[in-house]
Amino acid sequence: MFNARITGTGSYLPEKIVSNKDFESILDTSDEWIYARTGIKQRHVIAPHETTSSMAEIAANNALQAAGVDASEIDLIIVGTSTPDRVFPSTACLLQNKLGTGDCVAFDVQAACSGFIYGLGIANQFIKAGGAKKALIIGAEANSRIMNYEDRTTCVIFGDGAGAVVVEASEETGILSTHMNSDGQYQDLLYVNNPIKDQKQDGAQAYMTMHGNDVYKVAVKTLSRIVDETLEANGMVKSDVDWLIPHQANIRIINSVAKKLKMPMDKVVVTIAEQGNTSAASVPLALDKAVRDGRIKPGETVLMEAFGGGFVWGSALVTM
Ligand code: ACO
Fold it and tell me: CA-CA distance, 44 to 254, in Å (whole number)?
């Protein structure tokens, strides 16, 4: 049986940046409120000609290049997204066509902010079971397209972008374990309405609704728990982890999980100030940043975790 190892990372952020100050002229909000409550200073926003698959394509090509893998070698593509280009075909299928891979397995995972972690978990199982040898896992989101720009409780928080990894079958150690969970009883705390159903009724668009304070409380509790569960499953202790890559939802949530892990903040990869919450893209975006700026080195142990609408949550413990 092979291990599954991350051999390359890549990312893409749209050129346009919207600062907190930019919101002050259209909403009853302030740079001070947004930064103090979330840690966000700015977010990237997709251009009209761009799509989730076009962002995913750039991130994927960067990851392929880093891994030294040609697109034609890829036999599995998983895109974690809640903002697909189309209801179907999947964004993974559109990406498969753009990259020009062979006729590989390609599908989307809809697990809100945990979409990338779910994708990594599925790829890990595929590779260990012998069903794939070289996989592309992407988290990509055009969140600005599901924002109601009159709702200050959501639109100041989310940003757009894409992050990708190449995962290959390997005899070396790689992904140590992945963990995926869900609990649908919380479905009304964080959701996007169904545009297909609603359009038939009143032409409504899809918008995100979030009961932030209630989400916050469950997120802190759940993420702290999953950190313990992940280490326990591997017979490891907190000090065995070199880097924490948390989902970038809120700096206060990140701080409390880091505290629980007794992890100094210089060992936590934080991108929220510059990128906001990019949902499924946030973990691979942060991973790529820290790999490319030389913080994360080969052989180091990285704990990734995410939490999102559903609720769905998950983690991955990985040797790079
Ligand atoms: N500017 C100014 N005031 C605001 C804004 C804003 N942008 N947004 C809300 N407020 C107001 C509220 O109306 C409220 O006013 P009131 O007291 O008069 O009613 C007050 O600020 C406090 O609101 P809370 O919702 O209690 O603020 P909180 O401190 O909880 O911060 C936040 C809100 C940032 C959303 C936080 O709750 C949070 O981060 N929650 C978790 C989000 C998360 O983890 N999501 C999961 C992943 S995302 C995904 O899956 C897609």
Answer: 20
Ligand 1 center to 279 CA (angstroms)? 16
Which residue range(s) make up the domain with 261? 176-319
CA separation for the pair 237, 241 (Å, rounded):
8
Report how far ligand 1's centroid is from the alpha carbon of 157 (Å). Answer: 9
CATH number of the domain enclosing 131: 3.40.47.10
Q: Determine the Cα–Cα distance for residues 150 and 103; give it in Å rounded to an integer.
A: 43
Q: Which amino acid is at 276?
A: G
Distance (Å, rounded) from C-alpha 267 to C-alpha 303?
11
Residues belonging to the active site: 113, 247, 277
Pocket around ligand 1 at a 6 A CB cut-off = 29, 33-34, 37-38, 112-113, 152-153, 156-157, 190, 212-213, 215-216, 219, 249-250, 253, 277, 279, 307-309
Which of ligand 1's atoms lies nearest the C-alpha of 208? 51
Q: What is the pLDDT along the chain (320 residues), one digit of tens a residue?
A: 789 999 999 999 999 999 999 999 999 999 999 999 999 999 999 999 999 999 999 999 999 999 999 999 999 999 999 999 999 999 999 999 999 998 999 999 999 999 999 999 999 999 999 999 999 999 999 999 999 999 999 999 999 999 999 999 999 999 999 999 999 999 999 999 887 766 655 556 889 999 999 999 999 999 989 999 999 999 999 999 999 999 999 999 999 999 988 899 999 999 999 999 999 999 999 999 999 999 999 999 999 999 999 999 999 999 99
CA distances from 160 to 40, 59, 97, 265 (A): 14, 13, 22, 25
Question: What domain count does the chain have?
Answer: 2
101 and 145 inside one domain: yes
Residue that finishes a domain, picked among 152, 170, 188:
170
Residue nearest to atom 44 of ligand 1 (CA): 249
Domain check: are 150 and 205 in the same one?
A: no
The residue whose C-alpha atom lies closest to atom 32 belonging to ligand 1 is 212
Q: What is the pTM for the complete model shown?
A: 0.96
